[in-house]
Design a protein that fits this description.
homodimer, Rossmann fold, Dehydroquinate synthase-like, alpha domain, four-stranded parallel sheet, 15 helices, 11 strands, globular, binds nicotinamide-adenine-dinucleotide, binds zinc ion
Chain lengths: 374, 374
């Protein structure tokens, strides 16, 4: 009962499999992808994921177990030093041009393993086995790989597509709830920018999705991936329509930077960003107040919208530094009703300041939250 | 009086310019390559090169000087840590997707700068301005970029073509003579494997070439580059004929590894490798004794063949580890007469052992050298 989505880009064709039970025959699925029987397999994973899932992961491999390389997960380890240590371990274990890496973990591990595959011996093959909602919905698809600099996130990387993606939704059962909810904000985004039916479905089935119902979760993840695949196929190297995927991200990245990635998860930050973008769109007459209410309610349903502390002016000035901006122009993605969006280049500092102030006005205070929990 | 060679590959088209005086209008030449007038330029160079050539390099830039980033040259600095420091400096100086890097130095700097361009923001543009014979003849052309691991040379990298290559032969005037001679061994190689006329020319004009005569040096470098360009165009990703470029390199790499890169320059090591390959080819009846003599004499003319200390058995076993070997097979490039070569897969350990022992038999001892100098 898994879903298969075909990705066709000018530089690669591959399949994204989504559903429960995929780990059960992972070895056979990977073997079917290539014709190099002696290819050595290397799993890159982290202690947390491995402690939950190593048994299920390894069960299908039988006599020829893969080499397991573990690194600490977490944004702060998504760095050159981790890549170098992984590359040295690959070399020590005799990885060659035929070897295949398997990224088994969240987006941090997936991005790093894909990048490692892109640069080890100038490019070897890899497979994505994402274990977070964010990685299954978003980061494992599209071919973007990379790591962080001290100067900023994802400032180094490559485009390098996997041989296949196996998103086993069973693995989400051990994911902390806030991580699940934050990842699903990317599906909310998918609904807003390109897929009205997904939006409707997420409205109607919130409880089932959040409870991990197999059918509901598979459908939401698959529809989100399909949306991203369509956009990436149109625009592999991010020069046009692919920018729409950044709805909520310009301000979201600013919030993450202003709070040093310590207060909010990525999805929690872009939830705020989507609300601000929707407000700007409303004032420009691009969405009705009824649409604003539906969008805001859906974002909240997969929330909670988590409070954070930051300075409005700092946030506004940080949006000007977003690396999506070539040279001087400042871009912003705005929804057009529900299921469509557009890129505008003339969002003013004043508009952005108002929209950001509104966020703080509707933000629950710590006292509100304490009361709600009491 | 410079020569322009067009490179056409499935993924990029660019021109390699070779000749004296190219630095004089470098800024204008780079400006003509792109249509992003606000593109920021960054030069990556080293203190040694910059001390000789900064004035000539900067003269053409006038009011908009490039940002200059300096790193120590040398194989031991061709590492992730240098790349990271360069990437952080790019980010601090506001490098964006429109920025252009200029690699100004030898092969170490060229490989690292090309790799940095390949991965900074998932790929920005760069220009090669090579300043060693090896970089002008070989490393700046072909799109291979990379860095070393502790586990081995060039184990990480990317294929990333420059916007153009400007090989100003004037810069070779400050290059130590042993570096010039070692680089020219790659031209000897080009002659042996694919260009009989280049071989003849290098035989007839040794003195002029080594003295840095403009016409002779431009011709030799240009013919060598043209040979490499033809081969790379046929085989961009190194799956077929491009392997011929490795004549002398299987044993050459083993010599470099066995001597920990401390005793010989790369070109000095492959000089020995070419002599060994020629001897194996002779015993197999692929070259006549007259051809062996011509090849050996030409290698010596651009020598001297520099003595080194290593164990024959270690050298032979190291050739089995060459990363050009996929999985189990062991490959070797052998000359076929002069101007042609072929890939064989069945060179035995015994053949290789004999050829390696012959090298030591003809190696001048330290006493011979002391006598020659006396
Ligand atoms: N390549 C792309 O196109 C793209 C797109 C979006 C985001 N990203 C990147 O993705 C990264 C974020 O990914 P993420 O949100 O998955 O973060 P993550 O990889 O850090 O995982 C989040 C946390 O969940 C834990 N975890 C993972 N799977 C688990 C499981 N099944 N059970 C229990 N715990 C589990 C991890 O140990 C970690 O602590 C960022 O670095 C971001 O830049 C990349
Ligand atoms: N990318 C490729 O296809 C390819 C091919 C062959 C070799 N390479 C790489 O090239 C590197 C070797 O290149 P190299 O031989 O140029 O070494 P290099 O870059 O280390 O330069 C050699 C020495 O010459 C000095 N130097 C450079 N230019 C000078 C000048 N004009 N005047 C005075 N001194 C100068 C440098 O400071 C250095 O000490 C190796 O790392 C090798 O892996 C790459
Ligand atoms: Zn996102
Ligand atoms: Zn070489």
């Amino acid at each position: 009962m898994s879903t298969a989505i075909e990705v066709r880009t000018p530089s690669a064709n591959y399949t994204v499999h989504i559903g429960p039970g995929l780990l059960a025959d992972l070895a056979q699925r990977i073997a079917a992808l290539h014709t190099t029987p002696k290819a050595k397999l290397f799993v890159v994973t982290s202690p947390v994921i491995w402690s939950h899932w190593s048994e299920r992961f390894l069960a299908s491999f039988g006599g020829t177990q893969p080499v397991v390389l573990q690194v600490l997960a977490g944004e702060q380890y998504k760095r050159f030093s981790t890549l170098e240590s992984l590359a040295e371990q690959l070399a020590e274990h005799g990885a060659d041009r035929d070897s295949i890496l398997i990224a088994f973990g969240g987006g941090v591990l997936g991005d790093m393993t894909g990048f490692l595959a892109a640069i080890y011996m100038r490019g070897i093959r890899y497979v994505q086995v994402p274990t977070t909602a964010l990685a299954q919905i978003d980061s494992s698809v599209g071919g973007k790989t990379g790591a962080n600099l001290a100067a900023g996130k994802n400032l180094i990387g490559s485009f390098h597509h996997p041989l296949a993606v196996f998103a086993d939704i069973d693995t989400l059962s051990t994911l902390p709830e806030n991580e699940l909810r934050a990842g699903l904000q990317e599906s909310v985004k998918a609904g807003i920018i390109r897929d009205r039916e997904l939006f409707d479905y997420m409205e109607a089935h919130t409880a089932a999705i959040l409870a991990g119902n197999h059918e509901a979760l598979t459908r939401v993840i698959a529809d989100s991936v399909q949306m991203k695949v369509n956009v990436v196929a149109e625009d592999e190297f991010e020069t046009g329509v692919r920018m729409l995927l950044n709805l909520g991200h310009t301000l979201g990245h600013a919030i993450e930077a202003a709070t040093r990635y310590e207060q909010l998860l990525h999805g929690e930050a872009i939830a705020w960003g989507m609300i601000a973008a929707t407000s700007i769109a409303q004032k420009r007459g691009m969405v009705t107040s009824a649409q604003v209410e539906r969008i805001t309610n859906l974002v909240r349903a997969y929330g909670p919208l988590k409070p954070f502390t930051a300075d409005v002016h700092e946030l506004v000035s940080l949006t000007a530094k977003d690396k999506k901006n070539r040279s001087d122009s400042r871009r912003f993605i705005l929804p057009v009703g529900i299921g469509d969006a557009t890129v505008v280049r003339d969002v003013t500092e004043a508009e952005l300041t108002v929209a950001t102030e509104e966020l703080f006005a509707q933000m629950p205070t710590r006292e509100d939250l304490a009361e709600a929990n009491a």
